[in-house]
Amino acid sequence: MGEVAVLFRVYAEEGKEESVRKAIVDTLKPKGSQLEEVAFGIKTVKVLFVHDDSTGSSVIEEEIRKVPGVKEVEIIEESLT
Predict the structure, then answer these.
(1) Three-state DSSP class for residue 64
(2) Cα separation of 37 and 31, whole Å?
(3) Which in 5, 32, 56, 65 has the greatest CB count within 10 A?
(4) pLDDT beyond 90 at 79
(5) Radius of gyration from C-alpha coordinates of the chain
(6) What average pLDDT does the structure give for the chain?
(7) In this structure, which CATH number among 3.30.70.60, 3.30.360.10, 1.20.1180.10, 3.40.50.2000 belongs to the domain 3-80?
(8) What's the half-sphere exposure (Cβ side, CA atoms, 13 Å) at 58?
(9) How wide is the angle at C-alpha 16 spanned by C-alphas 35 and 18, nearest 5°?
């Protein structure tokens, strides 16, 4: 069994980026997280998860979507570690 690293970009409601990042860190325990300024003051949250390859990334994506203030989630990179 291997491990999979998945990098997500999370779009939050305007002005709630930091609270969404903190909620994801506190509840889902990612390997890393940061705010990223995309353009013209628009910010997203990038979060990195490493999980067993028997678990699908969609499970993590669904959990992120449940966090209050999250508008959209996308996988921007996924690879075996």
Answers:
(1) helix
(2) 20
(3) 5
(4) yes
(5) 12
(6) 94
(7) 3.30.70.60
(8) 1
(9) 35
Copy the structure tokens of residue 29. Answer: 């325990």
> Which of 59, 75, 70 lies closest to 23 in space, CA to CA?
70
pLDDT band for 41, please (50, 70, 90 cuts): confident
- HSE value, Cβ hemisphere, 13 Å, CA-based, for 30: 25
Angle, helices 17-28 vs 57-65, to 10°: value is: 130
Question: In angstroms, rounded to a whole number, what is the distance separating the alpha carbons of residues 72 and 75?
Answer: 10
Cβ atoms of 13 and 26 closer than 8 Å: no
Residue 1 CB-density burial (10 A; 0-12 exposed, 13-18 middle, 19+ buried): exposed
Mark 38-70 as b/e (b = at least 16 C-beta within 10 Å). Answer: eeeeebbbbbebebeeeeebeebbeebeebebb
